[in-house]
Specification:
The complex is a heterotrimer.
Chain A lengths: L1 H24 L7 H8 L13 H9 L12 H12 L16 E5 L9 H5 L5 E2 L7 E2 L19 E5 L21
Antiparallel strand pairs in A: 1-4, 2-3
Chain B lengths: L25 E2 L6 E4 L9 E2 L6 E2 L4 E4 L8 E2 L4 E10 L7 E9 L26 H10 L12 H4 L9 E6 L8 H8 L1 H15 L3 E7 L3 H14 L4 E5 L8 H9 L14 E5 H13 L5 E8 L5 E6 L4 H8 L7 E4 L6 E3 L12 E5 L18 H5 L6 H9 L3 H6 L10 H5 L6 H57 L8 H23 L9 H24 L6
Parallel strand pairs in B: 1-14, 9-10, 9-12, 10-11, 13-17
Antiparallel strand pairs in B: 2-8, 3-5, 4-7, 5-6, 7-8, 13-14, 15-16, 15-17
Helix pairs in contact in B: 3-5, 4-5, 4-7, 10-13
Chain C lengths: L14 H23 L2 H23 L4 H5 L3 H12 L6 H14 L14 H12 L7 E2 L11 H9 L9 H4 E2 L2 H10 L4 H4 L13 H17 L6 H20 L7 H6 L3 H8 L10 H21 L6 H18 L20
Antiparallel strand pairs in C: 1-2
Classes of the chains: A mainly alpha, B alpha/beta, C mainly alpha.
């Protein structure tokens, strides 16, 4: 009886020591959750999620205040990645969300009055211009967030969808017929 | 006897090379229209330097190389540029690309200073030239890899981190149906050997090995004779016929036993590999001053006259198909071989530097594959893969879009040779899955980079706002401090005077600022500039009117 | 309409052709079975084939897949045949049907159909039967000339479908335990191996008749090797490990452990080595992995035979190793071209 007790106690102590040692020796410093979520978000800084930028949305998700299906620019792919990261169920976009193709802003220079309201609104400084000077979109920096369209008093900003070119073309997912549908 | 090594796998599809080697290389007649794409090489497309309506001479530069990895494009014959615009080209997307449409005038008038093609420029001795100059000449002559990858040749000749021990000439031509390199070696062996010596000189390479598959005995004999007659210490090595033995990495392994490390270049292990046609075009460029204007292309398959033709770049496929007398039941044309070829959407598509073969396809010749079955993990694909990959695992991951796993299993080491698809008993289009996965991964990496970049800009913007706020606060504090300190020194005056002084000071400051920010170039405006300014002012006024009267104008 | 995408040529081999060749390779064994034990096995095979095809068609219909396309790949047929060969031929008809239906519907289609099942369907079917109906699974046929009573083929059919034997004939009279079964029970009764082997059921190496059937399967397996449908790794590793394990114990204690050759030619060892373990869908996809997989199966088979409570361990050994396959494959990935430790391999090729 005593020997059995001693053996069990001994095993418990040894295993506990091993676990404690491993917890200290093999500790993995993980990234804070907010950084990981932010790395998944597309950084459009558009505010369609209802938060003023991608980082605030990431913080809200990490705090459990926001749902993961509020980011249209990230697409369904983004929702899946968030679901994987957080270990929650995939949730499709809500009814009112409109998924738009990736676009770039374009200023019609005939209408621009040089009021500077648009580049004050741009979250990534993708508009070049100065007071009473012509404004223009730096196309390579524009994320298509559309925050500049509303402030313009003369409505000179339009969103132009990005067309596929030979250099940006992607192979499509192969689909092949197995049999003719009857 | 040289020891040869082996690579894993490989297949032996029926060769079908006999029909197109019965006759020699013929010169294709001048087509009625040439469509010359500005992107015929890897890297950035050439920049057009001619406009619609320009008259050009044969060999004239029409596209300037743009950037580090780029090459030149030339007019294949003399004539008039009808248009510079987007035209359909040979690309799996079916998207058009910028091309120059050239209408030949039939005169074949060469640009000045190029030597007639039969005589040699005896005063040109490349051995006394600087290799960098020679490379620049190759770049401006449009010399790119004619084995299919069309990588600019001058980049491959740049000195690397280590000495090049072996220069390999790739005369393997492993894909069925294609015989252009075979015929080139039979008929123009001497020039290939001279070109190889030029390449060797530029690389300062040790030995030169010319690898030719054993199904080309006449080419082997011709090259051996040319090497002997040249007196150069090159070695023609006969390699076993196997597909894809002509792939650069695989040929390097067979001839030297070395494997090019994943993600690295052959020059990193002291080897460089060029196609025999590239060596030939390098010779023509350096010794004769001829830019790349044509290439040998095989027309074969469902045709009456399978043959090799020397075709001007930009010739539409239709013309070549007519030369080969395609049979009426041809339903499609393939550019390339049956293993890696590209089905062409129309016969208007122009032939370019990458086109080595046109196969007329028909239902009888290439019956459609039976519908695919699921993968049964039979491992035939892994046995056939020359890159030692596990295609069935890559297929599972590509199909389920687990791209991380696919990359872990070395997806990017796949050379897309098609051997796995060839042997698959379930007839799964494996290569298509790998191409999809690769482009998807690349696109995601680009998106990730763009997102990271946008995040940086956003964070800097927020930081800038913070900084401006701080600076403003500091300035305010400093001014208040200064005001407090300055006050005792000012003689007491009545409040009205003090106010006047402040106002005067402010007006002076404003005048200074206005003077500083006044545009400096408003003197001596030309009449045109004045007119433009007047136009802009009028427009501004008009817009102000519009804005004023717009009222409840709603944005759509 | 010619082929749509590269490559435009392919080897004219199909899954159904491969499966057909495997079925052909089973014929020598089946022929010897009929020679020594009578034609009842053919009825089992026919029943299993019909059930397999029918279940497959039904499941495909339920899953909204094109029926003809998948049924014609012969894989269901192969599962049925292998299961029928593992079950006593005189078993009631419903035994074969239940086993085959379970194997096809649950072990294959519920996992996603051809190519997606992690467990060998035939062995799942066998495992279900032996656990649920152990009694019926022990009524193996007596080889010709060995039993006290011989019943004709028609009487056998009658028993299988109706359950009635001719008068004065008991089931025990026409069936007997397999040589492996006999060995196990007798060893428990403290008889020695030498004594047991003097019983008439034992032929030269293994059971009378059944050793010839194993030989038939060996010949079929060699055909599969020659036709390059399977590679040598699994049969060699399995048989080798079985031989080694049996050999060690036999050398240590010949009275209680049978000789290695006996283990090779009894039970489903040959069938397992060449037909069951080599199932491509559930086996490893690397050559090194195949060696480990088959060696593990060989060891487990021997342990179950010698120390376990089941007479033959092939089915459970296969299923246990099927569980390990993903892990084995992950750790036996071969080095990729350009990622090998030595940049220059020095294997000589033919010039």
């Amino acid at each position: 009886m005593l020997s059995a007790l001693l053996v069990m106690a001994g095993i418990a102590i040894v295993l506990g020591a091993v676990l404690g040692f491993s917890a200290v020796k093999f500790r993995v410093e993980g990234n804070p959750l907010v950084d990981k979520i932010d790395a998944i978000l597309p950084q459009t800084q558009c505010g369609q999620c209802g938060y003023p930028g991608c980082r605030p949305y990431a913080e809200a998700i990490a705090a459990g205040e926001a749902d993961i299906n509020r980011c249209p620019p990230g697409g369904e792919e983004g929702i899946r990645k968030l679901a994987d990261l957080l270990g929650v169920e995939f949730k499709p976009f809500g009814g009112g969300t409109v998924l738009k193709p990736k676009s770039v802003a374009f200023i019609d220079e005939n209408l621009c009055i040089g009021c500077t309201l648009c580049f004050q609104a741009c979250p990534v400084d993708a508009i070049a211009g100065a007071a009473k000077q012509m404004h223009t979109i730096i196309a390579s920096e524009c994320t298509g967030c559309e925050l500049c369209v509303a402030p313009c008093p003369v409505d000179c900003i339009s969103m132009v969808p990005i067309t596929e070119k030979i250099t940006t073309w992607k192979w499509k997912y192969p689909v092949y017929t197995l049999a003719q549908a009857k | 006897m040289r020891t040869l090594y082996q690579f894993n796998g490989g297949i032996h599809p029926p060769e079908n090379k006999e029909p197109s080697t019965q006759s020699g290389i013929a010169r294709a007649p001048l087509p009625s229209k040439l469509v010359i794409p500005f992107r015929q090489h890897a890297g950035a497309a050439a920049k057009p330097i001619v406009r619609a309506g320009d008259r050009v001479l044969k060999g004239q530069l029409i596209g300037m190389p743009d950037g580090f990895i780029s090459s030149a494009v030339h007019a294949s014959t003399s004539g008039t540029i009808a248009a510079i615009g987007a035209q359909p080209i040979a690309h799996p997307s079916g998207l058009p690309d910028l091309c120059a449409t050239l209408i030949p005038d039939g005169r074949e008038e060469w640009i000045a200073h190029a030597a007639p093609s039969t005589s040699l420029r005896t005063e040109f001795d490349y051995r006394n030239s600087d290799p960098a100059e020679l490379r620049q000449q190759l770049r401006m002559s449009g010399v790119v890899g004619l084995g299919g990858a069309v990588f600019p040749g001058d980049i491959k000749l740049r000195p690397g981190n280590r000495k090049i021990d072996t220069l390999i000439l790739n005369g393997a031509e492993c894909e069925p149906y294609i015989t252009c390199d075979d015929m080139l070696m039979r008929e123009r062996a001497a020039e290939i050997v001279q070109g190889a010596e030029m390449l060797r000189f530029m690389l300062d390479a040790g030995e030169v090995l010319i690898g030719i598959e054993d199904n080309k005995p006449q080419a082997i004999a011709a090259m051996r004779q040319a090497v002997t007659e040249s007196g150069l210490p090159f070695e023609v090595v006969v390699v076993p016929t196997i597909y894809p033995g002509g792939s650069a990495k695989q040929l390097i392994r067979v001839l030297t036993g070395l494997e090019v490390p994943s993600g690295k270049l052959p020059t990193d292990i002291g080897v460089q590999c060029f196609n025999v046609a590239t060596a030939y075009s390098a010779y023509r460029a350096l010794a004769h001053g001829e830019p790349v204007l044509s290439r040998i292309i095989t027309i074969t398959g469902n045709v009456r006259r399978a043959q090799n033709f020397e075709v001007l770049l930009g010739t539409p496929v239709r013309d070549l198909a007519a030369l080969g007398e395609a049979l009426p039941d041809t339903d499609r044309y393939l550019m390339g071989g049956p293993m890696m070829g590209l089905p062409l959407a129309s016969t208007d598509i122009p032939l370019v530097k990458a086109s080595n073969c046109i196969i007329a396809a028909s239902d009888k010749l290439f019956p459609p594959a039976p519908p695919a079955l699921p993968c049964i993990r039979c491992m035939r694909c892994a046995e056939a893969c020359p890159a030692d990959l596990q295609p069935m695992d890559l297929f599972w991951f590509s199909q389920s879009k687990e791209f991380d796993k696919a990359q872990q299993f070395s997806l990017f080491d796949c050379i897309e040779c098609g051997a796995c698809s060839y042997v698959c008993p379930s007839h799964i289009p494996l290569v298509q899955y790998f191409q999809f996965a690769k482009s998807e991964i690349r696109a995601r990496e680009q998106d990730q980079q763009a997102a990271d970049h946008a995040r940086e800009r956003h964070e800097f913007r927020e930081y800038r706002f913070e900084r401006e706020k701080q600076e403003k606060a500091e300035k305010l504090a400093a001014r208040e401090q200064a005001a407090k300190q300055a006050q005792p020194a000012v003689p007491s005056m009545n409040p009205a005077d003090a106010m006047q002084q402040k106002i005067q000071a402010a007006i002076a400051r404003a005048r200074e600022q206005a003077a500083a920010s006044k545009p400096k170039n408003t003197e001596n405006l030309t009449a045109q500039q004045q007119a433009e300014i007047a136009e802009i002012e009028a427009r501004r006024a008009h817009i102000h009117e519009l804005a004023k009267s717009a009222g409840e104008h709603k944005k759509e | 309409m010619s082929a749509l995408f590269s490559p435009f040529i392919s080897k004219p081999d199909t899954v159904s052709a491969i499966m057909l060749r495997v079925l052909l390779a089973l014929l020598p064994g089946i022929a010897l079975y009929v020679w020594h034990f009578g034609p009842a096995i053919l009825v089992s095979i026919a029943l299993a084939s019909l059930t397999a095809l029918g279940t497959e068609a039904l499941m495909l219909k339920l899953r909204n897949r094109p029926v003809m396309h998948f049924v014609s790949d012969n894989s269901a047929l192969l599962t049925g045949w292998l299961l029928a060969l593992s079950i006593p031929p005189l078993a009631p008809w419903w035994l074969v049907v239940v086993g085959t239906a379970f194997a096809i519907a649950i072990a294959k289609h519920l996992y996603g159909g051809l190519g997606n099942n992690p467990f060998n369907p035939a062995m799942i079917g066998y495992a279900v039967l032996i656990i649920s109906f152990p009694a019926q699974m022990t009524h193996w046929l007596t080889p010709h000339g060995l039993g006290p009573v011989e019943v004709g083929f028609l009487e056998q059919l009658k028993y299988m479908f109706v359950g009635a034997l001719p008068p004065n004939v008991t089931l025990d009279a026409v069936t007997m335990a397999t040589p492996l079964d006999t060995l196990k029970t007798r060893l428990h009764l403290d008889e020695s191996v030498g004594q047991i082997f003097e019983m008439p059921i034992y032929g030269r190496l293994a059971g009378q008749g059944s050793e010839m059937v194993s030989l038939g399967f060996l010949l079929g397996g060699l055909y599969l090797l020659a036709a390059r449908i399977i590679t040598w790794h699994i049969p060699v590793a399995f048989l080798g490990t079985l031989f080694a394990a049996a050999g060690i114990f036999h050398l240590a204690d010949p009275a209680h452990y049978a000789a290695p050759l006996f283990h090779w030619f009894s039970g489903a060892a040959m069938l397992g080595a060449f037909f069951i373990l080599t199932d491509p869908v559930t086996g490893p996809t690397t050559n090194k992995g195949k060696l480990i997989f088959a060696a593990g199966a060989g060891l487990l088979t021997y342990l179950i035979r010698a120390f376990g409570s089941f007479p033959d361990g092939i089915a459970f050994a296969t299923l246990l190793m099927n569980i390990c396959v993903p892990l084995i494959v992950l750790y036996t990935q071969p080095p990729v071209f350009g990622k090998k430790a030595k940049a220059s391999g020095k294997e000589k090729g033919q010039p």
